Amino acid sequence: xxxxxxxxxxxxxxxxxxxxxxxxxxxxxxxxxxxxxxxxxxxxxxxxxxxxxxxxxxxxxxxxxxxxxxxxxxxxxxxxxxxxxxxxxxxxxxxxxxxxxxxxxxxxxxxxxxxxxxxxxxxxxxxxxxxxxxxxxxxxxxxxxxxxxxxxxxxxxxxxxxxxxxxxxxxxxxxxxxxxxxxxxxxxxxxxxxxxxxxxxxxxxxxxxxxxxxxxxxxxxxxxxxxxxxxxxxxxxxxxxxxxxxxxxxxxx
Length: 253
Known about the structure:
Layout: E1 5-9, E2 13-18, H1 34-48, E3 60-61, E4 70-76, H2 79-90, E5 95-103, E6 110-120, E7 125-129, E8 137-151, E9 154-163, H3 170-177, H4 190-193, E10 197-202, E11 205-210, E12 218-226, E13 233-237
Parallel strand pairs: 4-12
Antiparallel strand pairs: 1-2, 2-4, 3-4, 5-9, 5-12, 6-7, 6-8, 8-9, 10-11, 12-13
């Protein structure tokens, strides 16, 4: 697994790239999580500088990424920064973009999905429910199809997503509901739930479709927000990576 990459670090915030497969925060597994990793790093830096270390550094993620999803995150280093960034999240002032490869096609070249989601605590899955369901929470995302790829084992689409709300498993659940589940997603894509596997070819290259490719093809590639202290606009970008995105090399993107 790749290590977290620090993009910006100051007294108020820390912006980094979370590796896919790493939990953002401590969970039931024994895997090292992002927050613990970064707190250890900050503590080591303080010790090297000869600074007194009475307690672990303050570090709070103000938004989340699912464990299998990599990409850019911002964490607050003070309670004031946490409050202001959380406000930006709640008021949709923090803008989050993702890139993904999905199996199938979207209904239009660009569009939006508005659904209502319910999280099942027993299975840790979300599902789309009717608007009338009082337990449902409004979920909105916008997408743009960047390119499409046809193969002998199915069609794939490469898409850009702007997330408006931040519900549990929102992108993965909504795209699957609308017939374009994310490549490699064993929770929401039926192809991978069934362990289906075939070998496909395109332009004399081969790849495996189905089974468990080891990565969900969803990366948070752009994050925009206002710095909580300086009030300056902040924009951070990265490119998608990993085995799941190798499929993009099969066509002229």
